[in-house]
């Protein structure tokens, strides 16, 4: 879980001087973490075929046949970005052009096939970080320190605590725990905020992201054909409710009714509408995939543009 910052106040000037933020060297306080599940290789049981990891079992597969490393939002960000024409052009020009800053972080993703996503994700970009960690992990946890007041930037996600220095450590720990329980809503809110270089901007089901991506690809492959949108919806595997006024086409035909046009047309309309909704979402995700947060739709005024 993300660490919440606690700033400690004490009256001992010697301690304050020793621990002053401007005079201390920052140390790593633990393994980098992700608010949203990261890509992992995943191991399946030879007996049951299920993932050994309980976390992976809870997440489930984003689509039938998905590899473990595909069951995360970052994989879909990578896939939608691959479909952004401007970024493709940047990659073809070895990072030159409008999206050169994004390229400096993400690299030429078009040099990797889908099966190579894990290679892209796990490549070392420094002596201490893989690309996945560099782009999407939260910063190192902030350290406990002594302070007289909070900086303006700290007021939202920091608790200012006065610590009686004479109290024994065991009791202090108990008091800290009680304090965090008493402020659990503030703590929970702070822990939901991502401070990663590239934060996840919305909580969208992985299966929905996959369906949206599938609709976009089917549209690109067939938009110049004579196929109708409801037929493309079938190709993309879009699910809609086939029940109309308590009946389906199949149930009416079994009952001997030949007039099923109303039901057929209603289901086709539902398929067309669902296909259009997914296509609109896909186009938004692709257009905004270069803008520092994913998945976000058209209203992205709060998202920085990485050019």
How many β-strand stretches? 3
Helix content: 40-55%
Spatial arrangement of strands, main beta sheet? 2-1-3
Radius of gyration: 26 Å
Low-confidence stretches: 8-29, 300-305
The overall number of domains is 2
Shape: globular
Q: Structural class given helices, strands, pairing?
A: mainly alpha
Main sheet: strands, sense, barrel = 3 strands, parallel
**First-residue to last-residue Cα separation:** 32 Å
- Average pLDDT: 83
Order of helices and strands: EHHHHHHHEEHHHHHH
Describe this structure in words.
- The structure is a single chain.
- With 307 residues, the chain is mainly α.
- It has two domains: 1-36 and 72-198, no CATH class; 206-288, no CATH class.
- 43% of the residues lie in helices and 4% in strands.
- The chain is built from 13 helices and three strands; from the N terminus they run E-H-H-H-H-H-H-H-E-E-H-H-H-H-H-H.
- It has helices at 13-19, 54-59, 73-82, 85-92, 100-106, 117-122, 131-136, 169-182, 184-192, 206-222, 229-236, 249-254, 261-288; strands at 5-9, 145-146, 158-162.
- Strands 2-1-3 form a three-stranded parallel β-sheet.
- Helix 10 crosses helix 11 and helix 10 (206-222) crosses helix 13 (261-288).
- The radius of gyration is 26 Å and the shape is globular.
- The two termini are 32 Å apart.
- Residues 8-29 and 300-305 have low confidence and may be disordered.
């Amino acid at each position: 879980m993300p660490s919440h910052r606690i700033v400690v106040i004490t009256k001992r000037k010697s301690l304050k001087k020793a621990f002053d933020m401007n005079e201390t060297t920052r140390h790593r306080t633990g393994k980098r973490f992700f608010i949203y599940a990261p890509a992992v290789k995943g191991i399946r049981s030879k007996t049951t075929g299920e993932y050994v990891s309980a976390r992976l079992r809870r997440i489930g597969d984003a689509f039938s046949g998905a590899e473990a490393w595909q069951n995360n939002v970052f994989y879909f960000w990578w896939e939608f970005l691959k479909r952004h024409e401007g970024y493709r052009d940047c990659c073809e020009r070895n990072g030159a052009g409008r999206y050169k800053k994004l390229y400096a972080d993400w690299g030429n993703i078009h040099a990797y096939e889908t099966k190579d996503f894990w290679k892209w994700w796990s490549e070392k970009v420094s002596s201490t970080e893989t690309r996945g960690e560099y782009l999407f992990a939260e910063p190192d946890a902030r350290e406990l320190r002594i302070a007289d007041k909070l900086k303006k930037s700290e007021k939202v996600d920091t608790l200012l605590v006065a610590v009686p220095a004479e109290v024994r450590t065991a009791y202090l720990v108990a008091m800290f725990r009680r304090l965090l329980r008493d402020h659990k809503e503030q703590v929970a809110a702070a822990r939901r905020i991502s401070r990663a270089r590239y934060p996840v901007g919305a909580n969208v089901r992985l299966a929905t992201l996959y369906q949206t991506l599938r609709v976009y690809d089917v549209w690109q492959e067939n938009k110049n054909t004579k196929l109708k949108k409801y037929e493309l919806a079938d190709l993309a595997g879009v699910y809609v409710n086939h029940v109309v006024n308590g009946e389906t086409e199949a149930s009416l035909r079994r009952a001997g009714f030949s007039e099923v046009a109303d039901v057929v047309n209603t289901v086709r309309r539902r398929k067309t509408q669902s296909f259009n909704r997914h296509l609109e979402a896909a186009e938004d995700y692709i257009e905004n995939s270069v803008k520092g947060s994913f998945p976000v739709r058209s209203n992205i005024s709060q998202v920085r543009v990485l050019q």
